[in-house]
Amino acid sequence: MRSSDRSDPSPTRxxxxxxxxxxxxxxTTGPGLKxxxxxVPTGGILVSVLAVLTVTAMLPGTAVAxxxxxxxxxxxxxTTASPAAASVADGPTPPARTLAAGGGxxxxxxxxxxxxxxxxxxxxxxxVADVTYxxxxxxxxxxxxxxxxxxxxVSPAAVDSVSVRLVNTSTGITREAGAVSYDGHGVTVESDGxxxxxxxxxxxVKVADRVTDGARIDASYALSNDTATRSxxxxxxxxxxxxxxxxxxxxxxxxxGNPVEDATVELIEVDSEETVTTLRTDEDGEFxxxxxxxxxxxxxxxxxxxYVADGFAKRASVxxxxxxxxxxxxxxxxxxxGLRIAPAxxxxxxxxxxxxxxxxxxxxPADDRxxxxxxxxxxxxxxxxxxxxxxxxxxxxVNVTLAFAxxxxxxxxxxxxxxxxxxxxxxxxLGDIDGDGNLExxxxxxxxxxxxxxxxxxxxxxxxxxxxxFVNALGDRIVSVGVEGANGTTYETSGNDGAAGEPAFxxxxxxxPDTATEGEPFGISATVTNENDTAGTRTVEVxxxxxxxxTLASGETLASRNVTLDGGExxxxxxxxxxxxxxxxxxxxxxxxxxxxTTVTVADSLPGPAADYDADGDGRIDTGELRAAIGDWAAxxxxxxxxxxxVGVWASGG
Length: 654
What we know:
Layout: E1 4-5, H1 31-38, H2 45-53, H3 83-87, E2 112-113, E3 118-120, E4 125-137, E5 141-145, E6 159-167, E7 174-181, E8 187-190, E9 198-207, E10 216-217, E11 220-224, E12 229-233, E13 238-240, E14 246-254, E15 264-269, E16 274-280, E17 286-292, E18 296-303, E19 307-309, E20 316-318, E21 323-325, E22 328-332, E23 338-343, E24 362-365, E25 373-381, E26 399-404, E27 422-426, E28 429-431, E29 440-448, E30 462-464, E31 466-471, E32 478-482, E33 489-492, E34 505-511, E35 515-517, E36 522-530, E37 536-544, E38 557-565, E39 570-577, E40 583-590, E41 595-603, H4 608-612, H5 623-634, H6 640-651
Parallel strand pairs: 3-13, 14-21, 14-22, 24-33, 35-41
Antiparallel strand pairs: 1-12, 2-4, 4-9, 5-8, 5-11, 6-7, 6-9, 10-13, 11-12, 14-17, 15-16, 15-18, 18-20, 19-22, 23-25, 25-29, 26-27, 26-31, 28-29, 30-33, 31-32, 34-36, 36-39, 37-38, 37-40, 40-41
């Protein structure tokens, strides 16, 4: 029983596929050239590469520096390199790079097969393959045949479903695929498209309730991606033992003897510590009867949110044709499983406790006044078993993380010199805040129209959505909620009209190019109008949101000038500014009364391939960045022409 290739894998990236920089590779590069570069010690790699790059542009079939052109099949085709190529191919092969799902090599090498022989009965959950590979690879789908091994004879009707776990053992990342109905031998289970760097394959099945005694599962499978298929016949055999089988049943109750409905029950074989199946309790708290292999000892573990198991249940040894009962007791520990966020009136002494919550939406004017705020509460509760008596706050006192879900940059939780888009509050208050006759734990918080500076508030009215989440006191569930519609917070951000007797400079008709280039000037203009009758002077500024926090702060001013206008007068103002960073930024012309903003894309000043390797964004290619480009070129990620561009920028000091 061993792994075997059904087809040779193709190169890790086929000619013509997009490279890292987004360009398409139109050349063929021989493995001898890549290995010659990879073999050069780090200290001499730049000189060697520059020597190679002085040759004219490489075309398919062109020999370079005594290196024979590659075969048309490309590297990895199984063809033999010419003597010229072989003479320079000494040294280590470049290390494999991370591969996209569906491309590149499959998991490979001599496997470690941990699949175990096991007896099973109807309804069991089984691991039928547990195989680890020394070399990780990319997997698109897995085809499973439960009778594919030499000892397998199980009927497809004896298996309900099959599922696959694709694991990277070094990171612990697991991709679940399935469960797929097993309606015939050779069922294909597809991954979610992200199964890269897989080095362990685990295949599980759910056995049907009825299965013939002696039926054997001896699984084989085939791993596939866009380039290759590799099969494996597992070592272990699982055999049905249903003749004279036993049965297990039981009841789950709480510490007062009341049945616990919809509890999850794991039925465990004591000696192997394997969970043979998972059951659910009915309205009477009962589970089973469940068929089990006879002459074994079993126990049960029950769980349900809001309850804590008092260790394992008793053990029961089950003989042939015997039925054993395993009672399970759970201790009720009421805990929060629900979260609401709503506006509230907590300051009015005439407000009774049972009508503190308000109907939304809450409207806040955009007057940049920190005193303009609305009070909200985060309320946690148990939605199924809440009781007004004896509620332990310790299981309801949790940290609730609150954040504005919308990407507007307007919402602010705290009155300070910055915008706070996320806060954490603790539900330490206890009371019947919503008037439902039950106790709730809650925490008040405020939302404010103070946006640290007025400029972000001068825009069309927006609706902010507050989202909250917490980990319950039992530590086993994350609860989150989105507050929409009536509980949203709308900011009337039409602008500051100006007080009587003061000028009010409005900004309109903003003109900005869609794109600009890093380090090169561009023009920006707008119309400034004094909308009041009083003449005055205002500072007009150009600001660029370089830190990306959604605001145009005073520290982000690129240019400014004073403008004097009579009441009702307008003036077109124009600036020329030079951006120092590449990226997409909010930009605007701002007065203390108003602002007009838009988005500008600032392109990197480096040519395309070089810009891809300017990791620190300083507009230069340093030695480390050049080495990254060389590594990608050696691994067929970029072309020789693209590497030439990067080296040219590095050599020029740019």
